[in-house]
Amino acid sequence: MTKNAILFVNLGSPKSPELADVKTYLKEFLMDKYVIDAVYPLRWFIVNKLILPKRPKESSAAYKTIWTEDGSPLISISKKFLEKISPTLKDPAYLAMRYQDPSIQIVLSEICKSHPNLKTITLCPMYPHYAMSSVTTVVEKTKNDLKKINPSIQLKIIPPFYNNPKYIASLSRSLTPYLKPNAYVLFSYHGLPERHLMKTDTTGSHCLKVNNCCEVPSDAHKTCYFHQIKQTTALVAQSCQLKEGQFSFACQSRLGKDPWIKPYTDLEIVEIIKKGFKNIVVISPSFVADCLETIEELGDRLRSDWTKNGGESFDLVPCLNTEDHWIENFSDLVKETVS
Predict the structure, then answer these.
(1) d(CA 108, CA 60)
(2) Mind listing the pLDDT tens digit for each residue in 22-76?
(3) Confidence (pTM)
(4) Order of strands, edge to edge, in the sheet holding 314-316?
(5) Please, what are the domains in the chain?
(6) Which residues pair with 119 in a beta bridge?
């Protein structure tokens, strides 16, 4: 008799790279109050009048460059991840996406229907670092949907695993084969508006308000994306014995005119070249599965920018995807939470 089920949730993807499907996806994503955190009327205006008239066309063209016979890389990789990790877990495991299909609501309904005696669901947001636009929105959507379907089921949540030794071990193992003499290592993370850091600061007085806030101990670090990506960078650098001055981190995918956390990936590579480096290795730890942001934004556009600015070799480390060591390590991480 099944008492617990496991639910993995990642971001999601358009149903196809065609303009209409991309527009539908972007509208759902950008209208999320945890993504664009403005009051509804202003958010509606920003999304429908400023972003959607142009952005879907650009995004559709980008998605078409990465679409495969299996569809969206993020979806197909996530499905293969589920197939590989399920046999390692004693509880039944499921996959949902925060936006589009398979939706959280539909998958929760399937779980509850298949296991009428269920007591708990262990929710695994597939994001190593905390952000309201990733972890919070997944948690809140799952809570709200579960309350409608079966409020008696308890929800357990796997916390951000940015400094978990098993995650660090898998990142380090993925990076190591790409390391070579005289190559610079750039850790590129998804960007975040600075206002999000201050909004999720549980102390209300630390993030971006205290000098060297990420280094000064504080309870705010539990929900600070900036602190957590710095920690991941430092731990992987230590594990791989990277030398000071031969690695750094930066943030990509910024949107709009508000200040986002710095440095920016596209500007950081210019500074790296100015330092005399011609060879670069890029790793993207905030993504556990390859997607538009890794394949197209980094693998195509950033690679092109690197060459145009005088760089030579450019190596992009694939995400953890379905690597055996990642499956084993994440399975152990899940089991620790379930137990």
Answers:
(1) 30
(2) 999 999 999 999 999 999 999 999 999 999 999 999 999 999 999 999 999 999 9
(3) 0.96
(4) 247-252, 183-190, 279-283, 314-316
(5) 4-161+324-338 (3.40.50.1400), 165-316 (3.40.50.1400)
(6) none
